[in-house]
Structures are given as structure tokens and as C-alpha cells.
Amino acid sequence: MNRVILMGRLTRDPEVRYSQGERVMAVARYTLAIDRRVRRNQDGNEQTADFINCVAFDKAGEFAEKYFRQGMRILVSGRIQTGSYTNKDGNKVYTTDIILDEQDFADSKNVSYDNSRPESSNVVEGSFMNIPDGIADPDLPFI
User: Full-prediction pTM beyond 0.85?
Assistant: First the structure.
């Protein structure tokens, strides 16, 4: 079984190209930064991420182009596909992509991606309260 489910943040806006031929189809490519759990050293936080390439076709590609922006947290599922090609220097390059079946938003509508705070109160949908800056305990697993 080849199935993967990932949640991460877009490293940049999706890059969309359209296929040539009888049936024109959108092909969206984007990269997700997915936090990796690591132990903290004595100096403080140590955070690493994996950068996973994703590919969405047709309507899913058009959706990504229209709605996804850099910094958004999204949830995707699909299959891993590996491949290779020879670059212009004659070196063999190996690739790994996630071919998407599904993609969706992982944040609420109230989240802003231009580094500004939402204009609403501290209460977000579902009656959860945002924790003000400076109060959060970095040892909590859900922050």
C-alpha cells in the first residue's frame, strides 16, 4: 500500500503550469515544510523540518492556484512517487514527490498569512481561545 498523509506549511505560493495537447490540465507544484519532532538541547529550541514536494493535477491544481498561499498550513493525502532524470551536467538526479488525491486547509478562516493578527476577538471557531504571546509554555506539546 502506498499512502501518505501530511500536514505542513507552504514554503511558497504554488507554481502552476498547464499541459499542452488535446486536454489542457493544470499541474500545481508546491513544497510543504513539515516539522520534525526533535529533542531540545540545553540552549533552547531545536526545530527541524522536512521539505516535501507535492503535485496536484487538474481541478486540484486549479484549487491550489486559486486558494493556497505561502505560509498556509494545509493537509494533503496521496501516494509517494519516485523518479529520476539526467540533468544538463550529465548527473543523475533522483526525485520524490507526493501525487495528491486530496488537499485541504488545516487552519481556520480567521488565520492571516501576512504576519498580522486576526481582527476578531481571542475566541476562534469551536470556542477555543488563542494563547496571547509570551504566555505559552514551550514544553507543551500542542503549542
Answer: no
